[in-house]
C-alpha cells in the first residue's frame, strides 16, 4: 500500500502514470475482426452510459492495490455496496461506472497516493424492458445490451397474427413519474421513412390488435403502467 509521504503529490502521480503507460505500451494489441471493431464501440458506449441498480454485478480495480480491488460485487436492494476504508459504504444506484470510479477514487485519496480506479459492469440485472400485447411471448426481459424496438419485438418472438404494426406504443416513464407515450409505425421504419427508436431501461412496448380502438389501447396502457410497478423503474 502506498501511504502518503513527504514526496510531492505531482511527482508520485507522474511516476505512477509513466509506469502505467510503459506497461500498456509493452503489451501487443490484440487483433480484432472487422465485425468486432464495429460492434465494440456500440456496446462499450451502452455500458459506459448504463445507470446501475440492484442485481447488477460490478468489479472495482485499483491499479497496483490488490487489497482494494474487488470482483463480483452484487449490488443489493439498497444500492449501497461495502468497500474497504469507506465507512457506510458507497451508494451506486443511478450512477454510471465512471461516476462510481470517481467516487471511490475520491474516498481512497485520503489513504493512497493518486489511486487509479476502474469500475466495470460484469452483469446487468436491474435494467429491464417489457413487450406486451400481440407478440408471441409477451413479458419482461433483462436489458443486457442496447435494444432497438425491432430487436425487442424479435426477443418477444415477433408480432403475432392480428398484431397492429402501425400503432405500436412505446411507454416511457420520466423522472417526475409521469408516462410519455409514443406511437410507432413499424412500416415507416421498414421503408426508411423514420429512424429506428432505441429503448431505455424500464421502457414498455405494447403491440395492439388491429381491431382495437384508441380507447382500448389506452386502457391496455393503463394496465401496463400498473404492472410496471411490479418490476420497478430505473433510478
Question: How does this structure look, described?
Answer:
With 235 residues, the protein is an alpha+beta fold. Helix content is 32%, strand content 23%. It contains six helices and ten strands, in the order ααββββαβββαββαβα. The protein has helices at residues 9-26, 34-49, 97-108, 149-155, 186-190, 214-231, and strands spanning 57-62, 70-74, 80-83, 86-91, 117-123, 128-133, 139-142, 168-173, 179-184, 204-207. It has a five-stranded mixed beta sheet with strand order 7-6-10-8-9, sandwiched between helices. Strands 2-1-5 form a three-stranded antiparallel beta sheet. A hairpin with a 7-residue loop joins β1 (57-62) and β2 (70-74). It starts with 8 loop residues before the first helix and ends with a helix. Residues 2-30, 35-40 and 226-235 have low confidence and may be disordered.
Blueprint (SSEs and pairs):
Layout: H1 9-26, H2 34-49, E1 57-62, E2 70-74, E3 80-83, E4 86-91, H3 97-108, E5 117-123, E6 128-133, E7 139-142, H4 149-155, E8 168-173, E9 179-184, H5 186-190, E10 204-207, H6 214-231
The total count of helices amounts to 6
Largest sheet: 5 strands, mixed
CATH topology call of the largest domain = wza like fold
* Average of pLDDT: 76
CATH top level class name of the largest domain: Alpha Beta
Please report which band the strand proportion falls in: under 5%, 5-15%, 15-25%, 25-35%, 35-45% or over 45%.
15-25%
Strand order of the largest sheet: 7-6-10-8-9
Give the CATH architecture of the largest domain. Answer: 2-Layer Sandwich
Low-confidence stretches: 2-30, 35-40, 226-235
What would the principal axes of the Cα set say about the shape? elongated
- In N-to-C order, the SSE pattern is HHEEEEHEEEHEEHEH
Total strands: the figure is 10
Gap between N and C termini, in Å?
Answer: 35 Å
Instruction: Compute the number of structural domains.
Output: 2
CATH superfamily descriptor of the largest domain? wza like domain
Helix content: 25-40%
Radius of gyration: 23 Å
Estimated structural class: alpha+beta
Amino acid at each position: 500500500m502506498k501511504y502518503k509521504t513527504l514526496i510531492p503529490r505531482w511527482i508520485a502521480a507522474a511516476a505512477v502514470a509513466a509506469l502505467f503507460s510503459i506497461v500498456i505500451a509493452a503489451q501487443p494489441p490484440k487483433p480484432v475482426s472487422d465485425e468486432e471493431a464495429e460492434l465494440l464501440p456500440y456496446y462499450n458506449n451502452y455500458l459506459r452510459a448504463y445507470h446501475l441498480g440492484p442485481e447488477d454485478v460490478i468489479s472495482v480495480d485499483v491499479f497496483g492495490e490488490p487489497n482494494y480491488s474487488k470482483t463480483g460485487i452484487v449490488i443489493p436492494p439498497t444500492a449501497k455496496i461495502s468497500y474497504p476504508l469507506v465507512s457506510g459504504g458507497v451508494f451506486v444506484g443511478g450512477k454510471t461506472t465512471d461516476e462510481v470510479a470517481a467516487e471511490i477514487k475520491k474516498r481512497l485519496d485520503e489513504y493512497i497516493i493518486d489511486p487509479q480506479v476502474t469500475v466495470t459492469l460484469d452483469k446487468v440485472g436491474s435494467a429491464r424492458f417489457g413487450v406486451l400485447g400481440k407478440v408471441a411471448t409477451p413479458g419482461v426481459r433483462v436489458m443486457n445490451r442496447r435494444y432497438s424496438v425491432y430487436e425487442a419485438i424479435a426477443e418477444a418472438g415477433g408480432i403475432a397474427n392480428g398484431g397492429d404494426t402501425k400503432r405500436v406504443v412505446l411507454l416511457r416513464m420520466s423522472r417526475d413519474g409521469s408516462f410519455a407515450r409514443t406511437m410507432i409505425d413499424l412500416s415507416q421504419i421498414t421503408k426508411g421513412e423514420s429512424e429506428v427508436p432505441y429503448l431505455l431501461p424500464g421502457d414498455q412496448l405494447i403491440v395492439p390488435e388491429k381491431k382495437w380502438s384508441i380507447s382500448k389501447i389506452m386502457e391496455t396502457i393503463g394496465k401496463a403502467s400498473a404492472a410496471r410497478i411490479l418490476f420497478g423503474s430505473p433510478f
